[in-house]
């Protein structure tokens, strides 16, 4: 194709792919979750997810894993947890942007919250060195269709929260402007 036509075709393909992502996000949110639970090693889920997304992380952004040893297993659908982690890491990449930065995925057994409904819990933290999230935005982070991105659907974190809640867990955010953000997933241990 002539150069001008080729550029138009590239724009069309890019927009079709973007719209496909939007429609997929709506469908993910609208359809009932089908989950397959079994005792799951959260460190294994984090390691496999990191390998899966390593090549998609922009240059200048480092991905670090800090995995606690001898964590209890969680009753979980590993594929759904991978979906949550991928979303959180992608959001962290977008928050950091073109600047150099680091994303750390940490697993741990929270000491101060040792009784999660009478049981121990396992925690996954996704921390970025981005610009942080203003408090007024933090209040709406998990509300469906709330977004601060120009082309976002506002469904990514809502879907993450839905998946984590279906695991009888919680997801929250801690952030200060200028200091980065940490998303904390807490799941009951088996």
Which helices and strands, and how do they pair?
Elements: H1 3-30, E1 38-40, H2 42-53, E2 61-66, E3 74-76, H3 78-96, E4 101-108, E5 121-128, H4 135-138, H5 156-166, E6 170-175, E7 181-188
Parallel strand pairs: 2-4
Antiparallel strand pairs: 1-3, 4-5, 5-7, 6-7
Helix pairs in contact: 2-3, 3-5
Spell out the helices and strands N to C.
HEHEEHEEHHEE
Output mean pLDDT: 86
* Protein structure class: alpha+beta
Radius of gyration: 18 Å
* Strand count: 7
Quick rundown:
The chain has 190 residues and is an alpha+beta fold. The chain contains five helices and seven strands; from the N terminus they run αβαββαββααββ.
Give your account of this protein's structure.
- With 190 residues, this protein is an alpha+beta fold.
- Helix content is 39%, strand content 22%.
- The protein contains 5 helices and 7 strands, in the order αβαββαββααββ.
- The strands form 2 sheets. It has a 5-stranded mixed beta sheet with strand order 2-4-5-7-6.
- Helix 2 crosses helix 3 and helix 3 runs antiparallel to helix 5.
- The N and C termini lie far apart (59 Å).
